[in-house]
Amino acid sequence: MEPVILTKELTIKFGKFTAVNKVTFDVKEGEIFGLLGPNGSGKTTIIKALCGLITNALGEGKVLGLDIHKDSFKIKKRIGYMSQKFSLYEELTVNENLDFYAGIYQMKKDAIKVRKPEVLKLTGLTSYLERRAGALSGGWKQRLALACAIIHEPEVLFLDEPTAGIDPVARRTLWDLLFKLSGEGVTIFVTTHYMDEAERCRRVGYIYLSNLIAVGTIGELRQLPEISPDNSARLEILCNLPSEALVFIKELPYVWESTIFGQSIHVLCEANKREQLSKDLQDQGFNISQISPIIPSLEDIFVTLTNNIINKELGGGK
Amino acid sequence: MWENNFLAGLWPIFKKEVLQILRDPTTLFFALFVPIFEMVLLGVAVDTNVRQIKTVVYDLAKTQESQVLIERYISSDDFNVVAKVNSDRELYDKIVSGEAKVGIKIPEDYSRALQKNTSTSVLLIVDGSESNVTSEAVNVSSAITLQESLKRIATKSPGIVESRHKVLFNPNTRSANFFIPGLVAVVMQLMIIILISFSLVKERERGTLENLYLAPISPLGLMIGKMLPYGLLGFFELCWILLVMRYLFDVPIHGSVLLLLIFSIPFILTILGMGLIISTRARTQSEAMQLATSTLLPSIFLSGYIFSLDNMPQVFWIISRFIPTTYYIDTLRGIIIRGAEFKHLWMNGLALLVMGLTMLILAAFRFRQTNV
Questions:
Q1: DSSP characters over B274-291
Q2: N or C: more exposed end of chain A, with fewer CB within 10 A?
Q3: What confidence tens digit (pLDDT) does each residue in B335-370 have?
């Protein structure tokens, strides 16, 4: 089956600056695809390009089988979009906001009649119908924004950092809604810079400095040679004074990479060096309570990928 | 289908915009009451300019009656007697040198004529270079002499006092109602440009514009959907300002109100276009405000609103031809003050229409290019 979203070497330049550099990926029907990356890495630009908003995009891009260079208008009709700014008209009521978005998506009156109660029920907004959008709290505003983005039954839903700046409970609620939509067959494309959100996606793309570094399920990413090189091991160390220990560990010749996660230190090092690492630390006077092999988390994966890039940029490294 | 795409989004945006205008009390306040405040302020300011006009008196009669008349002039508050002179030469000198704007000459036989129940006249010599001063001085002087005559009817010697006037330097005086019609144009321009550009910039700031661009609406649909409600608001505002002008400031409209409204349409289109162009440039509301006020300055100083274009150097006259407000103020004054008709004004209308269409085409062009 043809993927719902597909790009081949998608490149976007703003003057001399390359915002998106030869990005290739695809998203299958009904899947939740997460594009993870720091601010300014090109995530929003990719969404805009997929909706045909960027006229000078190079390379191939298709959404729902439609060419992003030619069929922008047709694409826009069949997708929904929600940004972190909520994009609501605060003077209008919940009902009027929904009517407005139904209107600009050219929905017929009968269709609105059927669809509106569905959307309201899904987002739990039914009792707020006559409330002004400006009077809603952050979490409810976001639900309304989602309701407005799906009122026209889009086949693909783009969410641009939908949870930036809202509380953890509202974030959870939003993700529950996204899972429901995904269950109904809606393809969801979400950008984020939160690791835990990326972990909820079926597949993840990692974009860094305009380049798509890796794409795949978490399982696939773990198998990448740069994540788990031959003769390597990933260890978790629990010890006292982790910050001081980290400084020492970074200097060890057989350690390739080390980061602090809460109270523990994650280390990527040569295989079979567990005993040696433990001994070296104890010789320095650190008290080790645990040292054990771990499976790389998504964060480990991205730290490693980012470090690889930085080291390449610097022209060397370990 | 093509037509559908061509103006896609127009109707929902129109409805939404109307709701937003009605919901946002500041917009309505801005549109309806701020112009009145401005009119009152400027009306009063214009008024103060013509109070205490520096006046020189040449009293040939030197009688009790003439003294009474002079007192009347002084107590009217419009005249401030700065000098009394004893010859025509001195009188003219005072005016030519600018020490006085008005000279009052009371004839030698003033009291005698009144006692004989015949008429006599006071000569008012006015510096015509400031049109509003001229007209004010002439009007008030006529009123004072009329008052004096009326008072005399009841007495034993009901002689009539007339005020004759002679305008120096600029014999074509303008009416005191010179400013308010021009103010209508300036106030409308500021309101409409600010309101429409704010409505778009606000969408950009809040991020709703991004959603509109990602929705299946056409740039033209968005543009016209925004223009219509603010165009209607502008029209409504025009009627409102005209009502206030007519009944609060008592400025009579000598020509056809319908003609005035029809000629206002191309002007409103022009300023809507200007507002839209500003909104494609400005990123924030304060930026939009700056751009809007910067369009206002030439419209005030180079449109003939305050300074007569006839007296300007050629360069400024040429510049004024590119300012839509010039044509609209001329049209307003033509209809309101001179009772001008279509045959006198069609050139102005044509100029406005050309400018309006140019602005709209430019705005449409910029709308197509604008990214979020």
A1: HHHHHHHH-SSHHHHHHH
A2: N
A3: 887 778 888 888 999 999 999 999 999 998 888 776
SS (H, E, C) A194-214: CHHHHHHCCEEEEEECCEEEE
Q: Name the E strands within B7-157.
A: 53-59, 79-84, 102-106, 119-127
Confidence of residue B272 (pLDDT cuts 50, 70, 90): very high
ipTM of this model? Answer: 0.80
Query: Do B275 and B296 meet the contact criterion of CB atoms below 8 Å apart?
Result: no
CB < 8 Å to B1, chain A: none
Q: Does B164 touch chain A (CB under 8 A)?
A: no
What's the rounded Cα separation, in Å, for the pair B279 and B199?
A: 8
Distance CA B196, CA B206 (A): 16
Nearest CA to CA, how far is B273 from chain A (Å)? 23
Domains of chain B, each with CATH number or no CATH:
53-168 (3.40.1710.10), 175-369 (no CATH)
CA–CA min distance A85, chain B (Å): 6
Selected residue of A63, A71, A72, A104 to mutate for chain B interface (largest B Cβ count, 10 A): A104
What is the predicted pLDDT for the residue at B310? 62
Q: A177 by DSSP, 3-state: which?
A: helix
H or E stretch covering B309: none
CA gap A165, A173 in Å, rounded: 14
pLDDT digits over A100-140, tens only? 999 999 999 999 999 999 999 999 999 999 999 999 988 89
Tokens 């009772």, residue located = B339
This prediction has a pTM of 0.73
DSSP B39-50: HHHHHHHHHHHT
Q: Rounded CA gap, B189 and B263, in Å?
A: 15
B371 in contact with A at a CB cutoff of 8 Å?
yes
